[in-house]
Amino acid sequence: MNxxxxxxxxxGCSTGFGRELVRALLHQGHSVVATARRPETxxxxxxxxxxxxxxxxxxxxxxxxxxxxxxxxxxGRIDVLVNxxxxxxxAAIEEGEDEQVRAMFETNVFGLVAMTKAVLPGMRARRSGxxxxxxxxxxxxxxxxxxxxNATKFAVEGLSEALSKECAALGIKVILVExxxxxxxxxxxxxxxxxxxxxxxxxxxxxxxxxxxxxSGKQPGDPVRAVQAIITAVQAAEPPLHxxxxxxxxxxxxxxxxEFGDALERWRDVxxxxxxxxxx
Length: 280
Fold this sequence. Notes:
alpha/beta; Rossmann fold
């Protein structure tokens, strides 16, 4: 996609990446459908001629269908979907509360799927479009206390990679955005934690959870620069499937790739020896 004006539909715009993305895109002359569960949080955009503010809880199918209908009625098409709505829940695996875990999957995974399926028919008809899924470094690397959040983002990673291959011949691009720690509300008011911590995990999962919360607002990542990186990737002639954002994420992702490659080589003979001898 070139730098010409395009139509973006963004979920989760009340704070963080979503809100900064709306601001940047409107400033650059694009049209934006800005959504949030509480649309009153988007009051600053209501009067802008290039903006459509709409209520959207991605876990509610009627709202998903309605926001896509409104977007197409107002702007005629959706060029870019940004699946940004999501949140974190930090708990050791044993501490995890089923209701909280399932609720996070409903938003982070199934809500993303619902939005994607809702915009794909229009993109297929036009043979063009971009789907930008906000994943995380946590979709590439697992950490203590993040296991359930990791699971949602690992799911987004696998789904997006498959989608990119299914849609490549249809002119639809898929981008996975994988931020590290950024100064958003993710580790602040948006973060959920278990009601009952288990003492045996205090020095590992508990300590990491406390560190993340204490560092909220002090992370090295700048959301304003992050959204410019996302826009640059979408407008590239050949967008990346993976867009890692921030130095901590880049370094940890690089270490994961090296560790994985080293392990493959160490166990090469055992891996290859699992085939039938005549399998070639």
